[in-house]
Amino acid sequence: MNPRLLSLVFAPFALGTSAFIYIGLIEPISRDLGVGIASVGQLQTVFALACGIGGPLLARLLSKFDRKRLLLCVLAILVAMNVSSAIAPDLLTMGSIRFAAGFFAALTLPLASTLAVSLVPEASRPKAIATVLAGYTLAFLIGMPMGSILGDLYGWRAAFWLAAGIASVALLVIGIFAPAHVHAPEPGASSFRRALKGENPRLMLITMLGFAGTFATVSYIGPVITASTGITGSGIAAIQISTGIGSLLGLPAGAMLARLSARSALTTLLAVVLLTQALFSAGMLFDLGIFSIPVLVFTMAFNSAALFGTSPVIQTQLAQAAGPAATIAFALNGSMIYSGQGIGSSIGGAVTSAVGLSWTGCAGAAAVLIALVLARRLSV
Predict the structure, then answer these.
(1) Residue-number span of the structural domain to which 64 is assigned
(2) Sign of the four-CA dihedral 365, 345, 12, 280
(3) Residues of 125-135 as b/e, b for ≥16 C-beta within 10 angstroms?
(4) CATH code, domain with 78
(5) Please, are residues 342 and 218 in contact by the beta-carbon 8 Å criterion?
(6) Measured distance CA(348)–CA(340) in Å, rounded
(7) In 3D, which of 172, 273, 154 has the Cα closest to residue 218?
(8) 12: how many CB neighbours lie within 10 A of its CB?
(9) Calpha distance 108→195 (Å, rounded)
(10) Which DSSP letter does residue 230 get?
(11) CB neighbours of 194 closer than 8 A, spacing ≥ 6?
């Protein structure tokens, strides 16, 4: 495979690791900083909502700059923000750092996707996009579990040092191999109109709802795993790997389904997400005994596979409809991913505070159900 394309995998790998590195360590962080679990979970809300704000805004303000140079700047900021998080003295400081990191990190996926699309003919776009997005799934497969293991062994701050190291490697690899001198047309009002052409707004809303439903639970996955199975410490990392494996397998499946109509592909994938959310909720609400661990692993794997499978389908449709405004469409859809994560984290925190962790899966399933209804009404 083209090494220039493969180098771009490191960008979303660094982004995903930076975003989720601490998720298996919520309880240790809450004890160390003297705050509640729901409060620590809001760090993901802050990061994700900052991404949702920063993506479209920065895509427009920085449109004249070379895509590779912008991506390198974003990765350098991620390195600095992770180092700052590792030495943050309290939750308020961490929240401020996470907001700043998320605001700039929002450009990572649209920039990497634009560079990837520039390397291949139009017919190969779904595969190129899926290749880049594989870096995000590697964060679940490698980055997040490694963070949980290091955090268990050396304290939660070690996880942020790991994230800083991964972002540094991404900075080096992309600096050497990624294509240079790639520019996008300046996004005037017509570019935004084209990015929102046809079914694109509905596709973006489906993205937001799908991620909101899943992240109502995923944002609290450490406490959820402990509550469901009694597993703590490094054992959480072993179960987290199932999410990474599922998401890694879901991307090529989504790339293949992208050849079908978006309506058929997304209906199928979101039905799987909804089914796994229902099974996950049952596992949380009822004592399944010896079956609790296999049910949790199964639902996490298939849920992430189906959710990440929607990305190549939606990204391909967005690119086809937006044409030269594809970067703006990617940025807007990225904003929906991050907004969904933030909304899901907020929902999960509110549900946890009100009725407990066990009901987060049910709350998430409601959002996925709405996404499924919208997918059934697509005309593409």
Answers:
(1) 3-376
(2) negative
(3) bbbbbbbbbbb
(4) 1.20.1250.20
(5) no
(6) 12
(7) 273
(8) 23
(9) 18
(10) -
(11) 321, 322, 323, 324, 325, 328
- Is residue 188 over pLDDT 70? no
Cβ count within 10 A of residue 74:
26
**Cα–chain center distance at 106:** 11
Q: φ, ψ for residue 183 (rounded to 5)?
A: -120, 155
Measure the CA–CA gap between 172 and 7, rounded to whole angstroms. 10
- For residue 63, the model assigns a pLDDT of 73
**3-class DSSP assignment, residue 234:** helix
From the list 283, 232, 234, 217, the residue with the least C-alpha distance to 27 is 232
Tell me whether residue 232 is exposed, middle or buried, using C-beta atoms within 10 angstroms of its C-beta: 0 to 12, 13 to 18, 19 or more. middle
The helix (run of H) or strand (run of E) holding residue 233 is: none
Asked if residue 348 has pLDDT above 70, the reply is yes
For tokens 């912008």, the residue is: 70
What is the identity of the amino acid at 158? A
Residue environment code for 260-273, b if the CB has 16+ CB neighbours within 10 A, otherwise e: eebbebbbbbbebb
What is d(CA 310, CA 137) in angstroms, rounded to the nearest whole number? 13
| Stretch 244-253: mean pLDDT | 84
Q: How many domains does the chain have?
A: 1
In terms of residues, how long is the chain? 380
SS3 assignment, position 361: helix
